[in-house]
Specification:
With about 600 residues, the protein is mostly beta strands. The chain is globular, with a radius of gyration of 24 Å.
């Protein structure tokens, strides 16, 4: 990296001082149907900014983020995820207790300050397991969180890659410590291509750029100078958010581009921060008409969507495939900024605030993400934005589902002590609905047709019994009702899905302290909400805002075994917002007497 003069203030870093790193790519010969790779985790120290000392990290192959695996559909791959990490846990973990004066904002500040080190983190072993997020693969290859390995051992996984072109990513998924292992650097991107995508002639080579975005905080020494070490500082019940934005492992980098079209594969790899991204010109005005969304988590859209002036929102683990035309900006620079408050609830910017303005009271002290520097040369790009992207794409509706699909009901709720959980719900016959006061685990919901249904909680914590078994290649509809006050990005392994509806609900009658609703005081439907066009593609992560029921439908195709679904706010996942489900061949379920067993599912409706 270019050396930059150290600034006067020891905790101020110069923005856009360093070039964007491009992770190395691992490709396999297209003629080889069975590719093999070994990715070894190791502890290294890398500069995250030219004004910082080297930062200790845990990495895949010595790179942060790890190498980009670049493969073609149906090219089966066997990956040996070898644990070669010998260094101690590299980051500092600290907790800031609540106190008068809203000290939680101190989580934005570098340095531990009044926070206390979290007991046991410094002595954590390198216990690691890798999950290929978005992959259709058997349960034994999926990176089950308790099947982590220690130094010297390896996880062997096979990925058939029998799925459309999409942007996947790989990351650590170890039980109880996913938030810490990912924070330490164990992330990387995985690109899958197919003939449909390649026929489009999209920008490639150095015009196809991965942008892996995350936030971090930094430790300081007794004199207030950066030590280089990462700092995972949290407060109260809030998950981690930090003041420094990294793209491809560099804080506030810049990228030299030429006038013309570029393809950016964007991933939000943050622990909990949501990004609402905007391009700004040199005068701070939002640029419109130059950026187009062409794909979501799990594949291409049917047609390009313009990125609106309101921004492109990405919660943790969401991906966006974006085309940007820099043809009109030769000799100028553009800034990519974030306008999402933290914790994010989907709220618009406050009155009088525009994208690019800092919002320190909303834990967004630094909105800048990166800078694009457009060369002052004539455009030579012959690419034209296609009107059709994926002829195989279709907008999923309930009417297009097979009649034997299964329905599930899931609530995102907190226990009386504030512990968040995933509440799997089963319908209670009307004749057995309770009377009297609030009963723990009993929730009544009135839908848009005025029909009130009583549900009983079947499970809420990871170690509760397995309830949900899906038929391999079967379709399911999941209704996800958010009774908490926080937006949760819900990730379901093995499947890709689309939202069928968003509905607002009056959740004030849910009595958290007693774990239910009183008879006759249900959680009631308020209104049907529009679906953001950017969410109408194929997804594997769905943002569920508070007071909202999101209904999604997807197929559990191509594999079987035990899998997980969970909130992808990593602090929530580690604290219990994760549950298991099983996928089994239908014939096996039928022979075993499980043919109609849905664990509270309501059958095709």
């Amino acid at each position: 990296m270019t050396t930059v003069e150290t600034p006067t203030s020891t905790t101020v870093l110069t923005k856009f001082a360093d070039p964007l790193r491009i992770p190395p790519r691992l490709r396999a010969d297209r003629a080889e149907p069975h590719a093999r790779f070994t990715l070894r985790t190791e502890g290294v120290s890398l500069q995250l900014h030219s004004q910082l000392p080297p930062t200790p990290l845990w990495t895949y192959g010595g790179h942060f983020p790890g190498p980009v695996l670049d493969l073609h559909r149906s090219q089966r791959v066997r990956v040996t995820w070898e644990n070669g990490t010998t260094t101690p846990y590299p980051a500092v973990s600290a907790f800031l207790a609540d106190a008068p004066g809203n000290p939680s904002l101190a989580m934005n500040a570098p340095g531990i300050g009044l926070a206390q080190p979290v007991k046991g983190v410094a002595a954590l072993p390198a216990w690691q397991v890798t999950h290929l997020h978005g992959a259709v693969t058997g349960g034994n290859n999926d990176g089950w969180m308790e099947n982590a390995v220690l130094h010297g051992d390896a996880q062997l996984s096979e990925y058939p890659n029998d799925q459309p072109a999409m942007t996947l990513w790989y990351h650590d998924h170890a039980m109880n410590v996913t938030r810490l292992n990912v924070f330490a650097g164990l992330v990387g991107m995985y690109l899958l291509r197919d003939d449909e995508e390649e026929a489009l002639g999209l920008p490639g080579g150095d015009r196809e750029v991965p942008l892996i975005v995350c936030d971090r905080n930094l430790e300081t020494d007794a004199s207030g100078r950066f030590t280089g070490r990462l700092l995972h500082k949290t407060t109260g019940t809030l998950p981690f958010v930090g003041p420094y934005t990294l793209v491809n492992g560099t804080i506030w980098p810049h990228l030299e581009v030429r006038p013309g079209w570029y393809r950016f594969r964007v991933l939000n790899a943050s622990n909990s921060r949501t990004y609402r991204l905007h391009l700004l010109d040199e005068g701070g005005t939002v640029v419109t008409g130059s950026a187009w969304l062409i794909g979501t988590d799990s594949g291409l859209l049917g047609a390009p969507l313009p990125v609106p002036a309101a921004g492109l929102t990405l919660a943790p683990a969401e991906r966006a495939d974006v085309l940007v035309d820099f043809g009109a900006f030769g000799g100028r620079s553009l800034r990519l900024v974030n306008s999402a408050q933290a914790p994010f609830r989907g709220d618009p910017l406050p009155a009088g605030v525009k994208p690019g303005d800092p919002l320190p009271a909303a834990r967004l002290p630094e909105p800048d993400v990166m800078q694009f520097r457009v060369a002052d040369v004539p455009p030579t790009d012959a690419f034209r934005l296609p009107q059709t992207l994926s002829p195989s794409y279709y907008r999923l509706t309930h009417d297009r589902l097979p009649p034997d699909h299964m329905h599930r009901m899931l609530a995102l709720a907190a226990d009386a002590d504030g512990t968040l959980g995933l509440w799997e719900l089963g319908e209670v016959p009307a004749s057995e609905a309770p009377t009297g006061g609030v009963r723990d685990g009993i929730i009544q919901v009135t839908d848009q047709d005025g029909v009130t249904t009583t549900y009983q909680r079947l499970a809420r914590h990871f170690d509760d019994q397995l309830n949900w078994r899906a038929r391999q290649d079967g379709w399911e509809v999941w209704k996800i009702l958010n009774l908490s006050g926080i937006l949760h990005p819900i990730h379901i392994h093995l499947t890709r899905f689309q939202p069928l509806s968003f509905d607002g609900y009056d959740t004030a009658r849910f009595v958290q302290a007693q774990g239910g609703t009183a008879p006759g005081a249900p959680v009631a439907h308020l209104d049907s909400l529009p679906i953001d066009p950017s969410l109408t593609g194929w997804k594997d992560v769905m943002r569920v805002p508070p007071g909202t029921m999101v209904t999604v439908a997807g197929q559990f195709r191509g594999a079987s075994g035990r899998y997980m679904y969970h909130c992808h706010i990593l602090e929530h996942e580690d604290a219990g917002m994760m549950r298991e489900f099983a996928v089994m061949p239908g014939a096996v379920m039928d022979v075993g007497g499980m043919g109609g067993m849905g664990g509270g599912g309501m059958g095709g409706m």
